[in-house]
Amino acid sequence: MKNHFVIISTLPEIFTSPFSHGVVGKALKNGVWSIEIINLYDFGLGVHKKIDDTPYGGGAGMVMMAEVLGNAINFVKNKYSENIDFYYMSPRGEIFNQNIAKKITNDLKNKSICIVCGRFEGIDQRILDFFNIKELSIGQYILSNGDIAAIVMIDSVVRLLDGALGNHESEIHESFSNFNDEALLEHDQYSKPAIWNDLKVPDILLSGHHEKINAWRRENSIKNTKKLLKK
């Protein structure tokens, strides 16, 4: 399926609100992309649908069991004839950025994307090794679950899909998009009124001279990027 996400989650209801509103929600309603939520508890063991256990070697927390998560992943692989890539949201993964978002956007043209969402102490390492799952992180901090990170990743990817944004120029000129082959932060933005609290919009933006405006925006983007790199 084109532009299709599959989510393996213990909190399927958490995806309802974020994907019901805004640009991403509208794109979902318009069929630009689609999503399927797999409830990991459907693969849980025993009467109580157990999905995790204490870690070998001791320590705090619980770890998702390989048998349970492996069965869920095999279900997804069989359903999509293995034409699907798997990602696991993890604080130790590669830092997610705009280039990765663009890569996943391109991948979605030919295959589905499955995101495995962990919780507590994570998942059994053998799952990552056996299925060769790529780990991604949205930042160097800890969240209560991987579902929140998955929502961030999906939002970033979906807005790059054809038909998601009302104005294609918005994606071209925003932060981290290529400006003359350079990955720069977005330039400062201004709107009406021209003077607010004695603060004026830069004169060049009121000039109507598009070449000079573009030159100013590029210089401003470079300045903003350098400022971030110094932090």
Topology diagram in text:
Blueprint: E1 4-9, H1 22-29, E2 34-39, E3 52-53, E4 63-64, H2 66-79, E5 84-95, H3 98-107, E6 112-116, H4 125-131, E7 134-137, H5 146-158, H6 168-173, E8 178-179, E9 182-183, E10 195-196, E11 199-200, H7 210-229
Helix pairs in contact: 3-5
Description:
There is one protein chain. With 231 residues, the chain is of the alpha/beta class. It has two domains: 4-158, 3-Layer(aba) Sandwich (Alpha/beta knot); 168-229, Orthogonal Bundle (Trp Operon Repressor, Chain A). It has helices spanning 22-29, 66-79, 98-107, 125-131, 146-158, 168-173, 210-229, and strands spanning 4-9, 34-39, 52-53, 63-64, 84-95, 112-116, 134-137, 178-179, 182-183, 195-196, 199-200. A hairpin with a 2-residue loop joins strand 8 and strand 9. The longest helix has 20 residues, at 210-229. The protein starts with a strand and ends with a helix. The mean pLDDT is 91.
